[in-house]
Known about the structure:
The complex is a heterodimer of chains A (about 130) and B (about 375). With about 130 residues, chain A is mostly beta strands.
Amino acid sequence: MTETISLSTDPIARRWWADVAGGRIGYERCADCGAAQFYPRGHCTACGSRRVETQYAAGTGTIFSITVVHRPPSPALQPFAPYAIALVDLDEGVRLMAHADPALAIGARVRAGFTSFGGRVVPRFAAE
Amino acid sequence: MAFISGVGNTRYGKIDGCTTMGLAAEAAHAALDDAGLRPKEIDGLLTGYATTMPHIMLATVIAERLGVRPAYAHALQAGGATGVAMAMLAKILVDSGRCRAVLIVAAENRASGQSRDQAIQTLAQAGHPDYEVPYGATIPAYYGLLAARYMHQFGVTDVDLAELAVVMRRHAGRHPDAHLRAPISRDDVMASKPIALPLRLLDCCPVSDGGIAAVITREPTAAAKVRIRGAGQAHFHQHISCARDWADMGAKASADRALADAGMALGDMRYLAVYDSFTITLAMLLEEIGFVRRAGAGEAAAAGRFDLTGDLPLNTHGGLLSFGHCGVGGGLAHLVETQRQLAGRAGERQVRNATTGFVHGDGGVMSSHVSMVLERV
């Protein structure tokens, strides 16, 4: 599959997306202070510890905000439009950007699924 | 003391055949003429960046183009806040005694130097390359997320946002150099095509070509005596997914630092110049800083408070929404218009009693904030 939008060379990000392709959404938890964080960085932004562990979210959460994109950044993504991009507060206490059902409203309880977008599997949230 | 002794700009809009360097030179010469200075009298030069002309040392390129040999020169990058950030650094440089006259210049052929798709993709990179951009996000999408949440949280409506677009267009109609001057109505805004809902086309600024410059000096060099009285910044996040408290994005912290630096209060400001890349940007900044109550920007616009005769005259050049957005020059235009207002040189746009001015720039997605207080002396 050819991906329309390339990732950076960050190995942490590459691993995160490989997990998504396998149906899992990872986040980091600090082994020293216990703080959860997204996006994964390899160090804890709460206490500075380098001891962070990858954990996997249950996939449930709440819509914090949502927008419906009618004007994609490139012609290659036009067939997917309109698509909804949301910020989702996962029950584990981290927030991530993802795709979502455009009919969802802020505050809706959601569960993660996965869809193909621009040649890549991305998380997509729908009503729980 | 630091004075904005001269300003100049090119026309904003689609300018066929223009180049970033050509626009920079035209704006710089206009600002130098306005300040009554020859190019060789400049001993500091600051610029920003141009997406159509990525270069590792743009300030020196401009210095050479102008034929000046500054003692201090480099580029700055703070997204849309770069223009005000350049002015703040120029103030620091003249206050410290390091420079006597600093030229700040911003230019880009952002509209004609690339395709619209290129512009949209380049700007989307303000988002996270691994955790935001892969979702097909764009700058309007990031601000669409801001708008949806802010409207939900505080009860702002589509009508409120549309009122802001209408005022900016009305102001631009009085500026001969503005990109978009034809009047629009509230209904026009709400009927315009969807871009990243809830934001529609007329909630978004245009992509423009343009160049703009100002000269900051230790002593006044011209009749206009407009002093930079204080400045401040705040930077709470880069990516919208990492912004923690959406009612406290850093705008108020930045404004409070600038006001404290100036020894003045919000209520002392007689003219406002606030970043307005989207209607929601303007609403959030005005409300967080505290010029109007939460969800009050739309009603203030409808009541005429942002008009030339209102109590909070705002972005009388038309702002990014209608004067135009050529990148760094888009945000610098707010500062230049403030200088013209405080100097009493704004022509048919002149606000009475514009003795003090507040300028605010926002870079990224409410990420970088730079505020400045100006006064006529």
